[in-house]
Amino acid sequence: GKSFDPTFMLSCAVSNIICSIVFGKRYDYKDKKFLSLMNNLNNIFEMVNSHWGQLYRMFSKIMYYLPGPHNRIFTEFDALKAFVAEEVKMHQASLDPSSPQDFIDCFLSKMQEEKELPDSSFHMKNLVTTTFDLFAAGTETTSTTIRYGLLLLLKYPKIQ
C-alpha cells in the first residue's frame, strides 16, 4: 500500500538477465560483487546525465584537463572494466571451445579461430568493450522502458 521507486529493482533484474547471457550465471541480489557492479552503473548514468557530464560531452578536450566531479566517471568505468576482465580471465581458464556456455565463451572461441588474422575484430579489447556496452546500453534502456510501461499502467488503470 506504500509508494516505492522500482528503478533499482528493475535495473538489477535486467542486469542479472544480461549477466546470465554474458557470464552464464546469475547473481543473488544481495551479492556484494553484483551490488558493486550495479552501483558503478548507477553512478555512471547519474554522472553522464548531470550538468558536469553534459559539459564534458560538449567540451571533452577541455574538460579532460579540468578538475571536477566529472573525472569520477573514469574511476567508475575502470571498476566496471576490471569486473569484466576478471570474468573473462575465469572464462579463459575453463574454456571448452566445443561447448560454449555464454557470450564470453563464444567470443573467446572466435578469438582462437581468428588469432592468425591480423585484421580480426575478435580481440581482448573488443571483448571487454562489447561486454561493457551490453551492460551499459542494455540495463539502462530496458529498465527505463519497463518503468515507462509501469507508469502507463498506473496512469490508465482500466487498461491494467
SSE layout and pairing:
Elements: H1 7-22, H2 32-48, H3 51-58, H4 60-63, H5 72-93, H6 103-113, H7 124-155
Helix pairs in contact: 1-7, 2-5, 5-7
Task: Provide a descriptive summary of the structure in words.
With 160 residues, this protein is an all-alpha fold. It has one domain. It has 7 helices and no strands. The protein has helices at residues 7-22, 32-48, 51-58, 60-63, 72-93, 103-113, 124-155. Helix 1 packs antiparallel against helix 7 and helix 5 (72-93) crosses helix 7. The longest helix is centred in the C-terminal third of the chain and has 32 residues, at 124-155. The two termini are 17 Å apart. The mean pLDDT is 88. One of its GO terms (biological process) is epoxygenase P450 pathway. It comes from Baryphthengus martii (Rufous motmot). It is a peripheral membrane protein.
Please sum up the structure shown.
Helices cover 69% and strands 0% of the residues. With 160 residues, the chain is mainly α.
Total count of strands: 0
CA-atom Rg in angstroms: 19 Å
Biggest pleated sheet: none
The pLDDT mean sits at 88
Low-pLDDT residue intervals, each spanning 5 or more residues: none
| Count of separate structural domains | 1
Please give the alpha-carbon distance between the first and last residues. Answer: 17 Å
Q: What does the overall shape look like?
A: globular
> What share of the residues does DSSP label as strand, in percent?
under 5%
Q: Give the SSE string.
A: HHHHHHH
Number of helices: 7
Helicity range of the residues? 55-70%
Structural class: mainly alpha
